[in-house]
Amino acid sequence: MDNSEVVDVLNDLVETSKDGEYGFATCAERATSVELKQIFLRRASDCARAASELQAIVVEYGGKAEDSGTMAGAVHRGWVSVRDALSGTSDQAILDECERGEDVALSRYRKAMKREELPATVRQVVERQMAGAQANHDQIKALRDGLRART
């Protein structure tokens, strides 16, 4: 795998992390539960750190690091806003949207991990970050299921 291919894989994950950062921050703004707001803000911060780490590696490999999310992420955030305007914001709806976003993030990390020719040091970072995305997903799913059971 040449450096430009490594940069492409990493920049895809930078966009994914930026989508997560923006998505979680948006959810924090709309959540009514103080606990959820804090969780979403921590997740947004984690995603920002992940993006920053990946951006530094992109530069090491001679690339220009992405600095924003994807169009799909913007559409997703826009859909959350439209749905909120039409139906009112509920923490349940927000958690549902968060889980969908984390499903997409996991899918993109899994796709990157299928690139067997990734350099070992890059693979380690991607694998660690994927574990973080999985933990985010599992936490959001548990929160969603717990809220659903209480209502």
Note down, in words, how this protein is organized:
The model has no long low-confidence stretch (mean pLDDT 86). Helices cover 83% and strands 0% of the residues. The protein has one domain: Ferritin, core subunit, four-helix bundle (Ferritin), CATH 1.20.1260.10. The protein is mainly alpha-helical and 151 residues long. The N and C termini lie far apart (51 Å). The longest helix has 31 residues, at 120-150. The chain has helices spanning 3-30, 34-60, 71-87, 91-113, 120-150. It is built from five helices and no strands.
Bin the helical content. over 70%
Report the structural category: mainly alpha
Ends distance: 51 Å
- The CATH topology annotation reads as Ferritin
Oligomer: single chain
CATH architectural group: Up-down Bundle
Shape: elongated
Q: How much β-strand is present in the residues?
A: under 5%
**What is the number of helices?**
5
Summarize the structure.
83% of the residues lie in helices and 0% in strands.
Index terms:
0% strand; Ferritin; mainly alpha
How is this fold's topology laid out?
Blueprint: H1 3-30, H2 34-60, H3 71-87, H4 91-113, H5 120-150
